[in-house]
């Protein structure tokens, strides 16, 4: 890719032609670059570095500077050619780049280092390295993922539409996108994972042993506690107990589904070594082996996602309800099964015909964006008025 062939404009005495996007996770940082319109992805593979987030924001910021340097080197570009830098953070963040509440960064000891004007600190570090001022922008990662999904579907169009996006993985992030732009409210709108959603009728039995699941936010019954890997890790302890196995087996048999005792034996073996390991394998067994015990456990997520969407639909009457994040990595067959359960729970919770899920009206779909939070951050910067 020759940079000379890209569109370039002059800003503050600099000829700029590219934008840098950075996706900062709790453990890794990914870097990508686009042209000014965010349409052309300039690097075939993302640059990836450890985030060092355990050691506080300054270490992470120097990793970001190193990563951007590596991107520029691969592209044969100079700092002065960079129009904007946009970074995602895995925690609530105000539109001006202040980390509001530290959720997924650092250790219990270093967390207090993270309530910082991250955008400002980054801008200072960039200026020191680049020798010029490059506008920087920091945003929440779920917002960025939602923004990228919207862009993938609709480009930079701003016509009337509303999309609700959730990302399910370790936790549950979310965002509301109105006419192509992330809706902030007075700062943190779209934290959909922390909505307190009732278990839909007909599904109470499965949650009877776990009626008030605690959330990392300090609350109880947030939808994230039942539709996330964190929730599943807590859930597996119960599911592999005698009482858990008995309840799940009875429910499966009542529905004419197969219960395979070997799966339970395997999961118990894994659980002995590491409970988290057992939780990871639940998804693999549910997908690759279509194991019904594991599918029953993942149905927790699907049921609660359906209930969440059904509760939001009357408030926002969206065009699309979009599921993104780690769960999108399952096979096509497993995706179809999962979406069926989501839709069934949605219909069970929301019987109003005007909010029926169908094409063009509260339609529930999988995300079409893959691993491009970094580009979502660039797009959010553009939408926020970055030149
Ligand atoms: Zn919560």
List keywords for this structure.
single chain; 387 residues; alpha/beta; Nucleotidyltransferase, domain 5; 2 domains; five-stranded mixed beta sheet; 12 strands; 39% helix; globular; binds zinc ion
Tell me what the structure shows.
The chain contains ten helices and twelve strands. By secondary structure, it is an alpha/beta fold. The chain folds into two domains: 3-134, ATPase, nucleotide binding domain (Nucleotidyltransferase, domain 5), CATH 3.30.420; 152-366, ATPase, nucleotide binding domain (Nucleotidyltransferase, domain 5). Strands 5-4-3-6-7 form a five-stranded mixed sheet, sandwiched between helices. Strand 11 (320-324), helix 9 and strand 12 form a beta-alpha-beta unit. It is globular, with a radius of gyration of 22 Å. The model has no long low-confidence stretch (mean pLDDT 93). The structure holds zinc ion (ZN).
Write the layout of secondary structure elements.
Blueprint: E1 9-11, E2 14-16, E3 18-24, E4 28-34, E5 47-50, H1 57-75, E6 82-89, H2 118-130, E7 136-140, H3 141-154, E8 162-168, E9 172-178, E10 181-182, H4 229-239, H5 242-254, H6 261-273, H7 275-288, H8 292-316, E11 320-324, H9 332-349, E12 363-366, H10 373-383
Helix pairs in contact: 1-2, 3-10, 4-7, 6-7, 7-8, 8-9
The structure holds zinc ion (ZN).
The site of zinc ion (ZN) has 6 residues, from loops.
CATH class of the largest domain: Alpha Beta
Shape descriptor: globular
CATH architecture name of the largest domain? 2-Layer Sandwich
The number of distinct β-strands equals: 12
Strand pairing plus helix content: what structural class? alpha/beta
């Amino acid at each position: 890719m020759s940079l000379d062939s890209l569109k370039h404009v002059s800003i503050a005495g600099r000829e700029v032609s590219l934008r840098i996007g950075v996706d900062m996770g709790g453990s890794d940082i990914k870097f990508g670059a686009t042209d000014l319109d965010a349409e052309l992805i300039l690097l075939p593979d993302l640059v990836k570095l450890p985030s060092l987030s355990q050691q506080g924001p300054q270490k992470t910021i120097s990793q970001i500077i190193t990563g951007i340097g590596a991107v520029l080197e691969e592209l044969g570009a100079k700092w002065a050619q960079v129009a904007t830098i946009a970074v995602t953070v895995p925690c609530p963040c105000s539109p001006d780049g202040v980390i509001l509440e530290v959720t997924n960064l650092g250790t219990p000891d270093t967390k207090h280092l993270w309530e910082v004007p991250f955008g400002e600190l980054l801008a200072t570090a960039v200026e020191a390295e680049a020798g010029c001022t490059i506008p920087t922008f920091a945003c929440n990662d779920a917002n960025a993922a939602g923004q990228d999904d919207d862009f993938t579907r609709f480009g930079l169009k701003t016509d009337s539409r509303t999309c609700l996006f959730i990302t399910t993985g370790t936790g549950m992030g979310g965002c509301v996108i109105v006419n192509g732009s992330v809706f902030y409210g007075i700062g943190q709108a779209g934290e959909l994972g922390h909505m307190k959603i009732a278990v839909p009728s007909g599904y109470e039995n499965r949650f009877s042993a776990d009626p008030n699941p605690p959330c990392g936010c300090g609350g109880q019954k947030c939808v994230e506690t039942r539709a996330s890997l964190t929730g599943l890790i807590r859930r597996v302890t119960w599911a592999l107990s005698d009482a858990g196995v008995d309840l799940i087996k009875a429910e499966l048999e009542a529905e004419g589904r197969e219960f395979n005792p070997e799966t339970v034996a395997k999961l118990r073996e894994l659980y002995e070594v590491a409970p988290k390991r057992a939780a990871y394998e639940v998804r693999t067994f549910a997908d690759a082996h279509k194991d019904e015990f594991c599918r029953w456990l993942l149905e927790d997520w699907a049921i609660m996602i359906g209930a969440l969407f059904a509760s939001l639909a009357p408030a926002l009457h969206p065009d699309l309800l979009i599921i993104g994040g780690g769960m999108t990595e399952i096979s096509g067959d497993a995706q179809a099964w999962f979406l069926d359960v989501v839709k069934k729970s949605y219909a069970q919770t929301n019987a109003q015909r005007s909010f029926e899920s169908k094409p063009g009206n509260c339609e529930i779909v999988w995300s079409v964006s893959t691993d491009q939070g970094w580009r979502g951050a660039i797009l959010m910067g553009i939408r926020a008025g970055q030149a």
